[in-house]
Amino acid sequence: xxxxxxxxxxxxxxxxxxxxxxxxxxxxxxxxxxxxxxxxxxxxxxxxxxxxxxxxxxxxxxxxxxxxxxxxxxxxxxxxxxxxxxxxxxxxxxxxxxxxxxxxxxxxxxxxxxxxxxxxxxxxxxxxxxxxxxxxxxxxxxxxxxxxxxxxxxxxxxxxxxxxxxxxxxxxxxxxxxxxxxxxxxxxxxxxxxxxxxxxxxxxxxxxxx
Length: 210
Prior knowledge:
With about 210 residues, the protein is mainly beta. It has one domain: Porin. It contains two helices and nine strands; from the N terminus they run ααβββββββββ. An eight-stranded antiparallel β-barrel has the order 1-3-4-5-6-7-8-9. The relative contact order is 0.17.
């Protein structure tokens, strides 16, 4: 065999020996990992510094009242309506502080009218399962009440939650339900007039993300 031909054949064998293992290694390489879940879906999107404004229109359902003798009785009120304006600022991921101004009205079986206007401090926790958003919250504050032309005021508490659908980057629309505790407290000779009202606020709500 000629020297030049021998050298060419040797180079070809060496090249083949190098290429074949490389080809098998490429075939055995693991497939690319699945794409990571976008952060907006994997992490609570309600970040510190986020703000929201909420508007709601609800039914105001009278549940029951109990008086100074702690005897539970039926309410004498009819189904009514309520509205509210709410502001929240997120102090950490998911946790919001804010306030709510509300108004609720009910008629009575005797043809009288009841109006309650609470002003309350709010604490709420929010989370999301895109495209849905959820919250649970509690509020405490004071109210002004007017019934049949007579007015009074007292402490107020509220607790409940809501579920929303993210209709756009700015707007979320949903349903809410909150329990109201409205004590009308009297002392002294009028202690027997003390009553504690219990209501259910339920209806539609819209949240604007600032």
